[in-house]
Amino acid sequence: MVKHRNPKRSTIMTRVLMIDCLARGKGERRATLDVVGVGPRSIVGVLELFNIESRIMVFEELAANPAVMLEYDILMVSAMSSDKGCAFKALRYWKEFGRGPTIIGGPIGEEYTLLIEKGFDLVVVGEGEKVVEKLLKLGLRDGVLPEVDRLKETRGLAFKHNDNVVFTGRGPRLSGHDLDFYRPSTKRIIDYPSYWGLRIYVEVVRGCSNFYRPKIKLPSGVKCIDCDICRSGELRQRLTCPVNIPPGCGYCSVPALYGPSRSKPIDAVYREVKELIELGATRIVLSGPDFLDYGRDWLVEPDPLTDPRNPPPNIDAAKKLLERLWNISEVSSGEVAVMIENIKANLVNEEVASLLGEYLKGTPVHIGCETGSIEHALAIGRPSTPNECIKAVELLVKHGLRPYLYFIHGLPGQTLDTAYETIKVMEEAFSKGAEKITVYRFSPLPSTAFEQFPPGPSAHSDPASSLIYSKATELNKMYKNRLIGKNVEAVVVGRRGSYGVAYPFYHGPVILVNDGIRFRGYLVEIKITKVINDRLVEGQVLRVIRRIEKTSLSKR
Questions:
Q1: Burial class (CB in 10 A: 0-12, 13-18, 19+), 443
Q2: Considering only CA atoms, which of 453, 196, 464 is closest in space to residue 336?
Q3: Sorting pLDDT into bands at 50, 70 and 90, what band is 553?
Q4: Distance of alpha carbon 319 from alpha carbon 358, whole angstroms
Q5: What CATH number is associated with residue 507?
Q6: For residue 416, what are the contacts with CB-CB under 8 A and spacing of at least 6?
Q7: Are residues 248 and 310 part of one domain?
Q8: Mean pLDDT across the stretch 177-182?
Q9: Which residues does 403 contact at the CB level (< 8 Å), separation at least 6?
Q10: Distance (Å, whole) CA 110 – CA 170
């Protein structure tokens, strides 16, 4: 097929199309997912340093109108490993309608050989800001790929040369100063449909402090030699393992991909949040593998933060950040909801819970527990114990927060005994006030200690997995049944059949509202009338609180 450019479009300025495939899987995003990740905005922010025109497009918009690619010179794709199907569809559309270089990055970059073989020109492996900046300086800003010799000199890339896949090695880690310099785009937030009602992630911490290694024997035959360097050695020593076991929990790629925790300066976070609010954002999530790592890295500089337990949380830094954000009038008045993402249970104490309750009362906080067995937690590299998770739930509930707990079924080392211990912890956490139990099925990820293990069995085929999955479903339904008759403030953002889809302002179960689409763009008060399943409830609009959609900004 001959590809034709739009003759009306100027060829003077390079234009980049960034496709957001995050959480789209095979190319079909669930209608009830309300998250805008920070990755695509981070790379578009680099493009803006060079005054390059760009647009972020979620995959479902592209699928509805792939001919839009005729307007662009470069395709960029942001995706996770679970989004390969979506990424490959975007590439096929580009081969039909587009012309010019194709670049893919994000966590999916660890699978660079497959991505190159599928036809992407360049794969960015690891942190992308500095890599993309160098590519632009080497000629990409003009819409062409740099010469091969220059690509070989650029760390953090994979590409094909003479029928071989070339990997240039991992790119440099960004410092705290770099995290201030490379500013995620705020103006392109309007590219996301219904952005005004979605949870918009703002990165405050990059990387993870858990550099423990799993003790379980790996499929390669490698096993922890109990040198204890990663648990009691000097911080810099913990970066490497004598037997080369990747750092962190065995199932998680964050430490290997993004390194130790680094905090973004308070001014940078404040500036980004304020600009997003000025553009109409109403739901902000302070994002990172652990909010309680915020500022801990400043306490150990110049050493890397590779200890998940010590030093204790930097209360002063966390308080200054939250205090600064609450100086924004829309936040202090409650017009804008600010939440945090994840915390490690072992860092939660009375002082921490009190601080979080002071600023974040009524908001959810996510805690990874993963298993209810202390021995299993140690074997898979967890930094906290199940008992610490239960204690964290108690403290957080005491101070008005709403804990959500994560578990994984099908993990290496799972047995019927560990499953029974897990459901016991689930029940105890629920009795202490945990609001939601989220269970994932183990999936091996590249660059993790567990990457060579097979995927976990389905909950329908494995008795241990079935116990965990069924208990989570039971507890979540119990919680949602308690919601019947209660009133919730929620934002109506879309539709599902004849129903309006509403998201609780401070997060919670997705609400389907009969004939609710007419309230799209409004914050409304909804009475919960029915539990549909463990993820969905149904409700009725009682009153309109205010309109929050920024219609003038939503028009391109």
A1: middle
A2: 196
A3: low
A4: 10
A5: 2.40.50.140
A6: 463, 464, 467
A7: yes
A8: 92
A9: 364, 365, 366, 367, 392, 393, 396, 397, 429, 433, 434, 435
A10: 10
For 517-545, what is each residue's pLDDT tens digit?
A: 999 999 999 999 999 987 889 999 999 99
CA distances from 417 to 383, 463, 468 (A): 21, 11, 11
Quickly list DSSP for 353-419.
HHHHHHHHTT-EEEEEEE-S-HHHHHHTT-SS-HHHHHHHHHHHHHTT-EEEEEEEES-TT--HHHH
Instruction: Tell me whether residue 121 is in a domain.
Output: yes
Q: How many angstroms separate the Cα of 120 from the Cα of each of 63, 100, 332?
A: 19, 11, 46
Which pTM was predicted?
0.93
Q: Are residues 548 and 465 in the same domain?
A: no
Please report whether residue 251 resides in a domain. Answer: yes
7-51 confidence digits (pLDDT tens): 344 445 899 999 999 888 877 655 457 899 999 999 999 999 999
Angstrom distance (rounded) from CA 342 to CA 289: 6
Position 65 in a domain: yes
CA atoms within 13 A on the CB side of 412: 23
Asked whether residue 349 falls in the same domain as residue 468, the answer is yes
Cα–Cα distance measured from residue 97 to residue 36, given in angstroms and rounded to the nearest whole number:
26
Three-state secondary structure call for residue 510 = strand
* Among candidate residues 453, 481, 509, the one where a domain is terminated: 481
Domain final position from 451, 481, 511: 481
Q: How many domains are contained in the chain? A: 3
Q: What pLDDT is attached to residue 516? A: 87
- In the 8-state DSSP scheme, what is residue 38? S
Instruction: Name the residue among 45, 40, 108, 42 with its Cα closest to residue 80.
Output: 108
Supply the CATH number for residue 356's domain: 3.80.30.20
Rounded Cα distance between 554 and 196, Å, is 9
30 and 53 in a single domain? The answer is yes
Residue 7 lies in a domain: no
Burial grade of 169 (CB within 10 A; 0-12, 13-18, 19 or more): exposed
Q: What range does the domain containing 208 cover?
A: 179-481
Peptide linkage before 504 cis (omega within 30 of 0): no
